[in-house]
C-alpha cells in the first residue's frame, strides 16, 4: 500500500508542478484547533492515553485515495470559474469530496511518519470543499471573487501540498493494509 499511496501522491504532485499554481500569498488563517482524540499507529492497539481513531479502513478504496490526491491538487490551484469547470469535468462534486473526507476521519489524531497529525489539514480541506460547494451552488452567477475564502486557508501551493501529504501520511499509518 505504501508504494501505491506514495505513487499516487508523487503523480499528483507532478501534475501540480506541470500546471503551476497561484501567485497569491495572503496571510494564512488560523487552522489549528484542539485535538480531541489520538490514535496509535497499530490498528486495534490502545493504551490508557490513546483512543483509537473512529472509522473503518476497509471502506476506503485505493481509487478513493487516488481521487483525493488528484482533487487535493486541484484544490491548491482552482481559483476561477473557468478552472472550476475543469475540476467538475474531472468528476469533482462537493458531496463526493465530503464523503471522502468523512472516510478519512479515520486518520484524525494519527501521527504520520513525516507530517504529524492531519487534524488541521482535514479542517482545511473541509473548509475548502464548503467554498467550492458554494461556488457550484451559485452556478452561472458564480464569479472569481467567490474563491477568495480559499486564499485564507493556506498561503501558497506548497502549503496545500503539505496539508494533502499530512492526510495521506496519517492515513497510511491508520490503514496500513489499505489496498492489500
Distance between the termini: 7 Å
Strand content: under 5%
Number of helices: 7
Bulk shape: globular
In percent, how helical is the residue content? 40-55%
Helix/strand-derived category reads mainly alpha
H/E topology pattern: HHHHHHH
Number of strands: 0
Low-confidence stretches: 1-53
Taken together, the total number of domains comes to 1
**How much is the radius of gyration in Å?**
16 Å
Average pLDDT: 78
- Largest sheet composition: none
Give a verbal description of the structure:
- The protein is mainly alpha-helical.
- It has one domain (2-15, 53-174).
- It has seven helices and no strands.
- Helix 1 (2-19) packs antiparallel against helix 7 (157-174).
- The radius of gyration is 16 Å and the shape is globular.
Brief description of this entry?
This protein has helices at about 1-20, 60-75, 80-90, 95-105, 120-140, 150, 155-175. It is mainly α and about 180 residues long. The radius of gyration is 16 Å and the shape is globular.
Question: How does the SSE layout of this entry go?
Answer:
Layout: H1 2-19, H2 62-77, H3 81-89, H4 94-104, H5 119-138, H6 148-151, H7 157-174
Helix pairs in contact: 1-2, 1-7, 2-7, 4-5, 5-7
Features:
mainly alpha
Amino acid at each position: 500500500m505504501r508504494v501505491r499511496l506514495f505513487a499516487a501522491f508523487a503523480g499528483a504532485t507532478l501534475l501540480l508542478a506541470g500546471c503551476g499554481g497561484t501567485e497569491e500569498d495572503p496571510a494564512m488563517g488560523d487552522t489549528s484547533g484542539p485535538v480531541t482524540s489520538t490514535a496509535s499507529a497499530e490498528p486495534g492497539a490502545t493504551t490508557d492515553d490513546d483512543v483509537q481513531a473512529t472509522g473503518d479502513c476497509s471502506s476506503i478504496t485505493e481509487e478513493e485515495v487516488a481521487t483525493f490526491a488528484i482533487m487535493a491538487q486541484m484544490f491548491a490551484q482552482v481559483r476561477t470559474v473557468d478552472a472550476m469547470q475543469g475540476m467538475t469535468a474531472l468528476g469533482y462534486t462537493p458531496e463526493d469530496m465530503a464523503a471522502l473526507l468523512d472516510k478519512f476521519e479515520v486518520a484524525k489524531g494519527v501521527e504520520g511518519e513525516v507530517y504529524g497529525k492531519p487534524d488541521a489539514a482535514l479542517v482545511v480541506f473541509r473548509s475548502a470543499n464548503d467554498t467550492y460547494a458554494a461556488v457550484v451552488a451559485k452556478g452561472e452567477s458564480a464569479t472569481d471573487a467567490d474563491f477568495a475564502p480559499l486564499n485564507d486557508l493556506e498561503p501558497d501551493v506548497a502549503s496545500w501540498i503539505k496539508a494533502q501529504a499530512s492526510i495521506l501520511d496519517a492515513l497510511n499509518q491508520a490503514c496500513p493494509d489499505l489496498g492489500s
